[in-house]
Amino acid sequence: QVQLVESGGGLVQPGGSLTLSCATSGFTLSSYTLRWFRQAPGKEREFVAGSRIVGDDWISNYVPSVKGRFTLSRDSGKSTVYLQMNSLKPEDTAVYYCNILINSRDYWGQGTQVTVTS
Q1: Could you tell me the CA-to-CA distances from 73 to 13, 57, 113 in Å, in that order?
Q2: 46 pairs with which residues across the strands?
Q3: DSSP class of residue 67?
């Protein structure tokens, strides 16, 4: 059974940092692209970042609005992917979800709230 469980959200001031975790189970993480999305109030869910293993390399990509501030990493032993978020801005406020596509089916976690406010 595929499961994704996010954690690590919270309330932070502008310029602060948070690290989100996505704990995975039920599939081999190294075989798929794991993606992070976010959804702000009144807005559509949007892609934030994605990562996968290609050969011996860990390949990540980010939307321009977070590139240079957000970093993906992975703890292979725990099948967990982390989203390190630095220099947070009020516009980063959203519910953050991790996602994986397996056999044309999307799987989502329950989401974790990130609120950036002074």
Answers
A1: 23, 12, 20
A2: 38
A3: B
Rounded alpha-carbon distances, angstroms, from residue 42 to 34, 45, 94, 95? 25, 10, 10, 12
| CA gap 67, 103 in Å, rounded | 29
Reduced 3-state DSSP string for 70-94: EEEEEEHHHCEEEEEECCCCHHHCE
- CA distance linking residue 21 with residue 6, whole number of Å: 5
Beta strands in 2-45 (DSSP E): 3-7, 10-12, 18-25, 34-39
Per-residue pLDDT tens over the stretch 57-102: 889 999 999 999 999 998 867 789 999 999 999 999 999 999 999 9
What is the residue-averaged pLDDT of the chain?
A: 94
13 CB burial (10 A radius; 0-12, 13-18, 19+): exposed
**DSSP code for 29:** G
